[in-house]
Amino acid sequence: MEREHIRNFVIIAHIDHGKSTLADRLLESTHTIEERRMKAQYLDQLELERERGITIKMAPVTMRFVSENGKEYALNLIDTPGHSDFSYEVSRALEAVEGAVLLVDVTQGIQAQTLANFYAAKKTGLAVIGALNKVDLIEHTNPLVIAEMRKELAALIGCEEKDILEVSGKTGKNVSLLLERIVKFIPSPKKYDAGMLRARALVFDSFYDNHKGVVASIRVCGGTFNAFDDVYLIGTETRAKIKELGVFVPEMKPRNTLSDGEIGYLATGIKDIEKIKIGDTVCVFDGAQVSKHAISEYALLGYEEPKPVIFVSFYPEEASEYDALRQSLQKLKLNDSALSVEPDQNEVLGRGFKIGCLGRLHFEITAERLRREFEIGVINTFPSVRYLVKTRDREMITIVKPEELPQEYLEIQEPMIALDIIFPRTYLSSILSLQKKFRFSNMHTETIGERIKLSAHMPLVELVSDFDDCMKSVSEGYASFSYELKEYAPADIARVDLLVSGKQIPGLSRFLPNESLEREARRMVEKLRDLLPRQQYTQPIQASAYGRIVARADIPAIRKELGIFGKNGGDRTRKMKLWKKQKRGKERLKDRSEATISPAVFKELLKKE
Ligand code: GTP
Fold first, then answer.
1. 40 Cα: distance to centroid of ligand 1 (angstroms)
2. Which of 11, 15, 16 for a ligand 1 pocket mutation test, highest count of atoms within 8 Å of Cβ?
3. pLDDT single digits (tens) 389-441
4. Residue 258 and residue 245: Cα distance in Å, rounded?
């Protein structure tokens, strides 16, 4: 396809505003997917994505479209995730395209991620087409709201109101018009000069295929790649031969060439994901005598590697599942370059892994995928962040677990985020009530139409407690947030350990703000008291900080047996299997003294109330 007839774009939106559903309509309308193969959220390939209705991985697809001007176009769409945890996926997709469709659910209006994505698209220099989605829900009952939203979105984008499209991913309203707009308003890819190279491309994503090895999603930036070319990855200095070149339709479809401006994939049979890094430049050059240094001049501006910011240790519920857990994490990592995995050890829970994630949703999804795709139950510690500690010798050390804090130190610093919360003005006082609990600082507000945007700094660690749930509950679901990592700041916090029957429980230590230390410690021991099963004897639960006990609650001795199956149903063989597994687990834990702390207990303890 000639460059002039290519359009590369993303759909960006706040979570649940309907990107994937609209993408379905585009696939249908361009006959990319035959009707009988169509299923909802076609581009969400992971089972978990489809079930939870969220996009986790970006998904590129090439569509053919014949415009009313009679010309045929190749439209390359990249569907992106909506949640802040995955904003690095969005930023990568933005670099590979020239335009964006900014979608706003007309019943929800502009939300935090709408703004964050819009500003990111603008910064990348993309052409932005504004569209109001889900108009089928209110077009007959509330046309005034649509008019109001149209005004707000036009003001945000800086376009005329008539340029905002009203679409419906459900009924397909105006989908053809949107395709025409894409062709008209989004520029074709610029001609790139690959210089002394014959071709080069940006690796904007990668995934692992059991047969093809690591598959790199690429955007060609100059020249033409041919199937079976010898390629070179500039960043990792790796040579390889293309085994398959192609485009996503959305399945992989081999092609003989990929030219300047096109989006597709290449597979070389390389199995080591470290060799094909996202953000690297892959190129082809003629002649063997070209110096590495000379080639590196042609490297495209890559991406910063995603840095895990939240750390949590996973231990198998059964020690015998350690190897299975290791293998499963390796497999997950093949398709999730942002996940970091390191071996870890805990006195009570045994061998496990320290996992680094991008945020709380990323961590929850990882645990969920282990359970579903690999059928491995894990016990996890408190999610933590990376703290900087100034020792007495004025040396800066990094710690993740409170247990790693030296006895004596001068200062602890913690990572901060810049948070934007958007909500209808009636919820202002409710949102402000979160200030103390979540340690907001540097607050200021701004008005956006009928809504308020509150910007504040907040310690990152607050995100992994239940900030999200609390914000939703005080705003009855009407507030949304997005965040960006900021630098470190001194933290007024202390390490608190939990003891059951006088023994410290490894993995249950945590940092708490000094200001609310005793209150929080008391809440933790009381909560643990209520969550832990009773024994034949009284068990004291204590919290200690600065070498003294700061809170205590006792679990009285047992009086009657509790049921084992809980409230949930399920067939009997499954229950028996589960019961046997639980029994083995309990025996194992009993052997290891008092540590009968289940993942559910950990999870409950995390909540703030
Ligand atoms: P993330 O990928 O998680 O960010 O979500 P998304 O933006 O891809 O949203 P998705 O397409 O999953 O849609 C969210 C919900 O809105 C689903 O229940 C859809 O069925 C529904 N929905 C999407 N578009 C429309 C629409 O035009 N009209 C109506 N009535 N419902 C819609």
1. 10
2. 16
3. 999 999 999 998 888 898 889 999 999 999 999 999 999 999 999 998 899 99
4. 7
